[in-house]
Specification:
CATH topology: Pseudouridine synthase
Largest sheet: 8 strands, mixed
Shape: globular
CATH architecture: 2-Layer Sandwich
Order of helices and strands: EHEEEHEEEEEEHHEE
Oligomer: single chain
Number of domains: 1
CATH class: Alpha Beta
Radius of gyration: 18 Å
Number of helices: 4
Strand content: 25-35%
CATH superfamily: Pseudouridine synthase
Number of strands: 12
C-alpha cells in the first residue's frame, strides 16, 4: 500500500501521454521489481492505493473488489451544507462518464455518506452571498463505478470542491485562491480487505494531509 499524493497518476496513460511520472513506476523503481495495481484512484484523488507483487494476487484482490468483499471510506469536501447528517445516494450511473449518458447502460450504484463537519469560509464565490459554505463528508461507495462518489455528490447538488468535471469553475478557482491550493478535495482514507494468502483482515489507512486540518 502507498499513500498516493493528489495529482499523481496511478500508471502512465495515453490520456496523459506527456506525463512520465506515475505511482506504479515510482514504486517499481523503489522496489526494483514489477508491481501490479489492484485498483485505481483518479489522478486528483489522494490516499490509499494498493499494489500487489504478483499478477495472481492482484487478480484475486481484484475479484474481491468486484464482488464487494472490501470496504472503502473516502473524505470529501463539498460545496454547501447538506440538509441531513447522512444518508444513501441510490442513483444508477452510466457506464462511461466521459460519454453522453443517453443510450448507455445504467449500472446500479449506491454511496453511503455522513456529514462530519460544516464550515463557512470568509470568501464570496457567489455575488449573492458574502461567504461560502462547505461540508466535510465521509463517503463509502458500495460499488466502484468510475467517478462514483464525484458523480453521486453532484447528483445531490453538493459537488466536490475542485472537481473540474462535476463542479463549478468560478467556485473552484475562488476557493483554490483562498485556500492556497488547487486540488480535487477527495481522499481515500481507508480500505478494509482480506489478505488473499494469509486470510488476515487488513485495515489500510492513509491520514489526510495537513491541508485537511482546517476542515477536520
Amino acid at each position: 500500500m502507498i499513500d498516493k499524493p493528489a495529482g499523481l497518476l496511478v500508471h502512465r496513460s495515453a490520456i496523459d501521454a506527456h506525463e512520465d511520472d506515475a505511482a506504479l513506476q515510482r514504486l517499481r523503481d523503489q522496489l526494483g521489481r514489477p508491481v501490479w495495481p489492484v485498483h485505481r484512484l483518479d489522478r486528483g484523488t489522494s490516499g490509499v492505493l494498493v499494489f500487489a507483487l504478483s499478477a495472481e494476487v492482484a487478480s484475486r484482490l481484484g475479484v474481491a473488489l468486484a464482488e464487494r468483499l472490501t470496504r472503502k471510506r473516502y473524505l470529501a469536501l463539498v460545496r454547501g451544507w447538506p440538509a441531513d447528517d447522512g444518508g444513501v445516494i441510490d442513483h444508477p450511473l452510466a457506464r462511461d462518464p466521459e460519454l453522453p449518458s443517453a443510450g448507455q447502460p445504467h449500472l446500479e450504484a449506491q454511496t453511503h455518506w455522513t456529514c462530519l463537519r460544516r464550515h463557512e469560509l470568509p470568501v464570496s464565490t457567489d455575488p449573492r452571498f458574502p461567504t461560502t459554505r462547505v461540508a466535510l463528508l465521509a463517503c463509502e461507495p458500495v460499488q466502484g463505478r468510475r467517478h462514483q462518489i464525484r458523480r453521486h455528490l453532484k447528483h445531490i447538488a453538493h459537488p466536490i470542491v475542485g472537481d473540474a468535471n462535476h463542479g463549478k469553475g468560478p467556485l473552484n478557482r475562488a476557493l483554490a485562491q483562498h485556500l492556497g491550493l488547487h486540488r480535487l478535495w477527495l481522499h481515500a482514507q481507508r480500505l478494509t480487505l482480506t489478505h488473499p494468502v494469509s486470510g488476515a483482515v487488513l485495515e489500510l489507512e492513509a491520514s489526510p494531509g495537513p491541508e485537511w486540518a482546517p476542515f477536520s
